[in-house]
Specification:
Beta-Lactamase; 2 domains; 8 helices; 17% strand; 299 residues; alpha+beta; rod-shaped; 3-stranded antiparallel sheet; Alpha-Beta Plaits; 4-stranded antiparallel sheet
């Protein structure tokens, strides 16, 4: 599938928007997901380790362990981990809190929060549940700061790419489109461009009831110029011919090079026909006819 000029720019702009959004969204999203997942995993490991220690305490004193509050608090604090914005507690099967410790909570309630828990068993029965509750507020604050920075970076990247690479792409595409439809030597429209122009001109003339003239011409003995003087001189001759022909047509007419030494002209709004085309043909022949040589007599 071949994309048109407009479709290519639309795809390029869409890709630019996707890149800017990725820069703005991905870093904070990855940070928050990693922090939440890592924090939950770490807390789960610590709460499971604490449950193992508490099970040993229960096994030593199956009937009195619930009354050993100081020892239970020491068990909760034994496993190192985060201290900021965290509460650790032991709850019996009826939901009653037996013991708890609180970290250095300095920023208000634990909201939004994450709770991880682990059950404690003794002789196959559930005797308690350990809960670690910690706040995700630091993660959200970090997410907000990173999101702001990433958004600014995304806007800057969009503006930078929009201003330089995308403009370069547009300019390159315009140049490619121009080269694909014009003769590189004379910079005139080529045969395919002439056909497109003719279709448009005929459609417009049909709507308005105008007439269109099409003139085709070639250069006599142009091959001799290439053979005797070289292709470089032949190229210069074609450029000079194109300039002279262009001077004889109106601004709305179209001059094209069909190939080698062949040219064509679309004469728009040529209502006086065939007189208009004949007059143009005479001017073209005259502008290409070399002036007569002046004879120089001997003194």
């Amino acid at each position: 599938m071949v994309l048109t000029n407009t479709e290519t720019f639309r795809v390029a702009r869409l890709a630019l928007i996707v890149i800017a959004l990725a820069i703005a969204v991905l870093p904070p999203a990855v940070y928050s997901l990693t922090a939440l997942t890592g924090g939950r995993t770490e807390s789960q490991i610590r709460v499971d380790s604490t449950a193992i220690l508490l099970a040993e305490v229960v096994a030593r004193s199956p009937d009195l362990w619930q009354f050993q509050v100081e020892r239970l608090e020491h068990t909760l604090a034994f496993v190192a981990g985060r201290e900021i914005c965290e509460v650790r507690r032991i709850i019996d099967p009826n939901g009653r809190e037996i013991a708890s410790i609180q970290g250095k909570v300095t920023d208000g309630p634990l909201w939004p929060r994450v709770t991880v828990s682990s059950s404690v068993h003794d002789a196959g029965r559930n005797v308690a549940v350990i809960e670690f509750v910690w706040s995700t507020k630091p993660i959200l604050l970090g997410f907000g700061r990173l999101a702001l920075f990433s958004s600014l970076l995304g806007v800057a990247a969009y503006a930078a790419i929009r201003r330089f690479p995308l403009r370069a792409l547009e300019e390159a595409w315009r140049r490619m489109a121009y080269m694909a439809s014009h003769d590189l030597l004379t910079e005139l429209p080529d045969r395919h461009a002439l056909r497109d122009h003719l279709v448009q001109v005929l459609a417009s003339a049909d709507r308005r009831g105008d007439r269109v003239g099409v003139l085709c011409l070639d250069l006599d003995r142009f091959k001799n110029v290439n053979d005797t003087l070289g292709h470089a001189v032949g190229d210069q001759l074609l450029i000079a011919v194109a300039e002279r022909l262009n001077q004889q047509i109106r601004s709305g007419d179209v001059l094209a090079r069909l190939g080698s030494d062949e040219f064509a002209i679309i004469q728009k709004s040529a209502n006086q026909q065939p007189e208009g085309s004949l007059a143009l043909a005479e001017r073209l022949i005259e502008c290409l006819t070399p002036p007569p040589l002046r004879s120089t007599g001997a003194k």
